[in-house]
Specification:
Distance between the termini: 72 Å
Radius of gyration: 34 Å
Order of helices and strands: HH
Structural class: mainly alpha
């Protein structure tokens, strides 16, 4: 997100420069060039806001997808750990039983 700000500033300044040039060539059609410039600036700011909101929405959508994938992976790993844990418990019981048998033999 922070890397988008310089790009937006550059595009915004270009729009203002082109708009000022265009106002210099256009004749006054009953409107003040300053009023048109102000309206165009607000339109440009509004477009930038929509662009930033759209970027924020897409980032949050990606983060939500990543969180859901992480949750599914965590559940799969939890099931695998449960399986491994029960296998380790069985192996521990078998080893303990064999150790007791060996002690009886000696």
């Amino acid at each position: 997100m922070p890397e988008a700000i310089p790009i937006l500033e550059m595009q915004f300044s270009k729009k203002i420069q082109f708009l000022e040039d265009a106002l210099g060539f256009a004749g006054g059609a009953g409107k003040s060039p300053r009023a048109d410039l102000g309206a165009s600036i607000w339109q440009a700011v509004s477009n930038i806001q929509y662009f930033v909101i759209d970027i924020g929405y897409s980032i949050s959508k990606k983060l939500k997808g990543l969180a859901l994938e992480t949750e599914a992976e965590l559940e799969r790993q939890d099931e695998a750990l449960d399986s491994i844990s029960s296998s380790v418990d069985r192996a521990t019981l078998t080893i303990d039983r064999q150790n007791r048998r060996m002690r009886k033999l000696t």
